[in-house]
Fold each of these.
Amino acid sequence: MTDLDAMRRYDQLTERVYGERCLPSRTRDLILALGWVTLRDPRRHHPDVLVWDRTREVLNYDNRQMWETIAEDVPRYEHDWHADPTGCQAPMVRAKRLCGRSTTIGFAEFDPATGWMRDWGFCSRPRCREYMRPILERAEHSKDRAPEPIPNAGGRLPLFFAWNWESRYRKAMQVIRHRTEWEPPSYGLSADEWPSIPGQEKPQAFPKLRLVASDGAVIGRDTPALASSRST
């Protein structure tokens, strides 16, 4: 890759990053910094300059801040507890709204297509309990029938760079979240590989830049090469 090619690739990367609506600010900054370090940094050809260390220097991050940024991008399903309605969810007979009274019974239902969870709650009114009955029957054992939840968070860094992200994500979960049970989703690490969800815009694949690494540690500073959008 010539310097002119690298400049064009960096411009394309920057344009795409700023056009991506679902990028948390720190994830965006990390992608731009990785792009700079691998494509435009005057020190990028120095044999002793490592991607991780140089990127941290460019961002003026300490090591913990770097791992926090990686942890924020770990591919995962996160239920939005604030999106669930509060109060009884049975519809009113004459009014176009939900009952809304304080609930006396609540349960979760898992979507058979996405594996995502929905919380239900109902009050003690007989007609609300009658409305609840078929929903409760449908929800029983729905978790056992549901597939692995499709991720709805993270997975943006692998959109742009082919690296050993699984190793990075595992360490970030251990260092920042103190969780060792995280496993990569079977759908893939990159958000463009996940199944489409109705009503949600799916990220588009971007020709990835390969960051040379082994077991999560950089072992060389070759000129970045374009990799397939399915590369890992």
Note: DSSP finds eight helices and seven strands in the chain.
Amino acid sequence: MTPAEDPKPFEFAVPEDYERHIDEARAALDVVPRNENWENAQRVLADPPSREAIEAAQREAAEAMAMLAAFQQARHTGYDPDQTTKVVIDAAGELRELEFGVDAVRLGNHGLADAIGLAWAAAQDARAESQGDYTSRTGALGGGNTPAEQVLADIEFALSAREHERFGATTEDGLTKLAVNLRGRLTEVVFLQNNVLNLTDRHTLAEQLTAAVQRAQSDAAAVVGEIGAAHYARLG
């Protein structure tokens, strides 16, 4: 998965001579042909937005963009109950960081795989809570009344129908295989050699697992992109 680019700050300065421009535009209507374009311009200039209204809209847009930037830049951290494993994911659910503490060595393969799953679930819970807060502050999408909203609803339905699909990867050293679902969530970790942390150190294992997860997530994201593109094509 490729993280979304940070949104650019919203900037639109109301000209100092805004009111003069309105007056000049009204005067110009007296010397242009009275056709459909003239009628449209006349309606707009009859009641143009005030400077205060434009500035208020600018402030609201700037606040919304700042909120979106904070949401996209957020990182969500989860630990297993014994604090042996740390997982950090971003707003898109992409794995950003995986760490094993010194106590991870005593867990054994099955215990370590369980710890990764529990830490991931905790990070996902934190991410879901953040998404809920963001949605409540910005307003939820409509009920699919517009074409764009209907496309979003159709994409969500298509993703839900294919959540059983898995995208696998193996670490470079061949010690671990894993899988994620279509939404990039980790679903499986299997160590292929006994006592894996006797064969490699915890830092190397974390680095190789992170790289493998990100490859699997990239494969999943490519399919999500294809699904989205097929549905958005309907909008022309």
Note: The radius of gyration is 26 Å.
Amino acid sequence: MTKNILYALISSILLWLAWPPTPYTSPILLFGFLPLLIAIENIFQSNWKNKGRKVFGVAGLCFLTWNTACIYWIWNASPEGSIVAYILGALLMTLSFYLYYKAKTITKPYIADILLVGFWCSYEYLHQTWDLNFPWMTLGNGFATMPQLIQWYEYTGIYGGTLWILMSNILLFNIWKSIRYKNPDKLKLIPALAIWIILPISYSVYTYSNYAEQENPSHIVVVQPNVDPYQKYSGSALQQLDNLIQLSKDSSKFNTEFIIWPETAIPEYLNEKEIRDTRIFHTIQRFLSNYPNATLITGAETFQTYQDEATPSARFDRNSNTYWDSFNTALAIENSGKIQFHHKSKLVPGVEKLPFASALAFMKPIFAKFGGTTGGYGYQDHPTVLYAKSGIGVAAAICYESIWGNWIAEYIKNEAQFIAVVTNDGWWGNTTGKDQHLHYARLRAIENRRWVARSANTGISAFINQRGDIVKKTEWWKPAVISQEINLNSELTFYTKHADIVVYPFLLLGVLGFVYVIFKSRKRRKATE
């Protein structure tokens, strides 16, 4: 059993080495699961008792180690939440491989292999859609540092990467079995594996080398104010605003069309109905009067009030006898006085949104008596494209939203011509978290063939072109401003039109496989009683 534990740890190390932001190591993912699959096969072929528990333990060790090593940085922002993230993600990964083992005991090996793909894809999709969502470790994200190899994501999105990785490992595992069990027939899988790996890479390298953007320039300015997120609300709001404006002036020109400030750049709680009456707004208007073509995209915390419980997240204020919602917001402000709003909707579980709040709605009166709530930030069901006076549409994704391919694709379908990511990664400190977040934005650029303008409060701010190349970026924890002539794009990729469609057959496979495993296992257990 010691050897199998070692195999599991080797897999976890390989997967960690392959993960962003480490450069040029992503192809390790194509064989990183092999030691773990060998360990599970060894347990399956053994005469040991409680083999299922041993498989669960070995897989659990692998995924807990890998998952924690890649997202250790969550601890800096939320020690309590990080424990949940470490364990929950690893548990879902482990369950996928445990179900795979159970399938091996009741069906043919090749069927179990196919079901493994369904089980894993189901875990990834669940972790993207439920209230405890955290799709940071979706396998397809692993190629974010090597856009040269994944230009075909414009058709499949990151789930195509997940399928590529899983099937490469499964084919390699079956070749290993043919050698171990001296079954030459399965050596025929070697050409299949070669084609499976080489064909996507060849297509991608060719596309990457020959991709040409259509000329449709727009001048964009990105500002990085570098305000300590733990101290920003203790400082002067006007001083911080003045700093943002001074930095913006360094690169803004008469033809600048967008100036982008980071998440919650405005450190003042704003009533959405009364923003035009604030000193913040009038100061911004004076600044924008010098740039008649410019629209400011900035993060802010805003709120709305209601006479009744208008939304599921609305809170009751006993003093005014009204309801209210707070939002993590992206504002679009013109010098004409027009303001547009997008409310962050992919909220961080536990930090910005109470998971399963709708199920706890019956407890709202109890929470209200204690001054609490069953919600957090308010949200909207669909993203809002923000427009410049010239009609240019921008997908203003707020922090966490940028790791959802299907969410960004919805923006693009609604006429967004480039992507702006406004974020505040300073909560995590100088860790790999900020770098991973930056590289994941490259995936959105490829999927939708849109430039990304990324404004991060403390870094790393960047411009990313339609091939996923980082064209320009800032340093961590330094005030900075960068500008770029980007090319706008109005064409829709296959992925944009049909986001995540590639994963749906495997979700069905995963669900049917789960039902089959449960049914057959119960039937076998009854037969032995």
Note: The longest strand covers residues 322-334.
Amino acid sequence: MILRDATARTMLGSMLVSSIGMGLYTLALGQTLYQQTGNAQAFAMIFSLQGLGAVAVLPFSGPLVDAFDSRKVYVMCSLLRATTVGIITFALSTGGDGGVVAVVGTAAVFLSVFDNVQRTAFFKFTAHHIAGDRAVAFNSLIGIAIQAGSLVGMAAFGLVLMVGTATQALLVDVVVALVAALVVSRLRSTRKEAAGRLRRTTLRSALPDLLRDWAGLFRRHRHEWVVFGMVLMCAGDFVYSYSLSTLVVPLVDAWHGGQPWAVSALEGTLAAGMITATVFTRWTVRLRLLPVWASLQALVALGLAFSTVPAMHYVGFFLAGFANLNAITLLLTLLQQHAGPMDKAKMASLRLLAIGLGTAALMPLVGLASRVSLQAAFLTTAALLIPFVALGLWGMSKFRPQTAVAAKETGEQPAPTPA
């Protein structure tokens, strides 16, 4: 069982704790922005700004993380996040109302920068230290850790609001970021990671070396454009989950009497679908099922657009969580295994860059559609997934995992890949 592995337990625990803070600070920043502007697009704006932050940092983070110890990079990002949130809390507590939008927007960008570099390091660390037949099981649990952590963070936010303000709730994220840093700092790597080009570079040659590092990745995959299509698919899964989080409140207002508990119940149902999916990953995380999971997500969004029965919303959110977790796990596993030892972090950066670009480009469309009607927003979400369904069909027919090549380079046994 994967949880018997101390390294896996530590990294999953750290991601769980870190996600508690992410769920909390996203709600806290969105609530602060909503109170200032009175605009229901506040949450969509936060997601869009976080996407822009990812776009700004990810071209650089892959080569940098490939060059250094991923565990140390992970810890450093947690410390920087705690420091940034502390500064933001102070600024919001002491500044005037006129500067709230600027402070929240800046916060969203900087936190996205640190979170995406940290996730790049997480991808590299687990690709090196949790391989073989444990990879699928571990990757399926990542989604659960993130979702469960986000839900706990949302619940913690509600508890803090009972005794304090949205700004004060940000202090909880300072604590959890420090805890995540402490947990991973005590972990000892069992395998030596490959050192990338930039570790031996000088400041003067940093940019040329960075460009050569990226050029090497694209050269090695120059005959595998389908790989980059699957990287783009990662964006669809996250835009989809963000869209559901954005639309759950107006959905509850429209058909559930505006009951606050219904928001948590629907989010919990989404998480239940993800948890259920982990039980079946040995059968469901298969390359041939990739377009199935993309199509199911689109169909659920289409169904939510026309469903007026509250019970069916729970069914839809459950199926959405089930399909979303399977798609994310499959893509993450294949890309981890397909990347060579010197390309793990760069592949993670490429994946996260696609997610950031997709979020920045597509979430505003969902936000604008929500101003028209709830039905228009769900129909827009379904329509946005159509290109990703096409990419899934292409990936299913053309992608051929090359884990044997990576294993040969590292001297390890080739890992089994989802068929």
Note: The first helix runs from residue 6 to 37.
